Amino acid sequence: MPRVIGIDIPDNKRLEVSLTYIYGIGRKLSNQVIEKLGLDKNMRARGLTEDDIARLNATLTSEYLVEGDLRRQVQNNIKRLIGIHCYRGIRHRVGLPVRGQRTRTNARTRKGKRKTVANKKI
Q1: Alpha-carbon separation of residue 25 from 52, 97, 106, 109, 116 (angstroms)
Q2: Cα-Cα-Cα-Cα dihedral sign, residues 25, 29, 35, 36
Q3: From 4's CA, which of 75, 108, 112, 118 has a CA 20 to 30 Å away?
C-alpha cells in the first residue's frame, strides 16, 4: 500500500479513486492533482514509484488543505460558532441538525442518547 501524507491508500484501485481516501480530496481534486503531476489516472496505485509518491506528498502539502490541517480548520470553525452563540453554534452544542432539517420525525438517531423533541400523545 502506498503511503501518501501518512495515509495508506488502497493499491488495487485506480489512482483517481485511491487518492479520494485522503480526507479533503474528492474525485475532482484528485483528477486535478493527477493532471498537474502528469500521471495516468487509470493506473493502479501500486504502480506509483517512490519519486511519484514524493511529488504527490509535496504537491498536496504545499498547495492544498488536506488531512490534519483541514480537520483542525473545520473544528476551529465549529468552536467559533459555538463561542459566539449563534444559531448554528447552539445547534452544534445541543447535537441537533444544523442545516435546517426537520426534527419532528427524524434526527433522533443522531449522536448518542435520545433527545426528546416533541411530546407524543398515546
Answers
A1: 17, 25, 30, 28, 37
A2: negative
A3: 75
Domains and CATH numbers, the chain: 3-67 (1.10.8.50)
21, containing H or E segment: none
Q: Phi/psi at 8 (nearest 5 deg)?
A: -80, 120
Question: Is this prediction's pTM over 0.90?
Answer: no
* 98-117 tens-digit pLDDT: 998 888 877 766 556 666 66
Instruction: For CA atoms 8, 45, 62, 23, give the dihedral sign.
Output: negative
DSSP H or E run through 19: none
C-alpha cell at position 116: 426528546
Average confidence (pLDDT) over 78-103: 92
Cα 107 off chain centre by: 21
CA dist 83 and 77 (Å) reads: 10
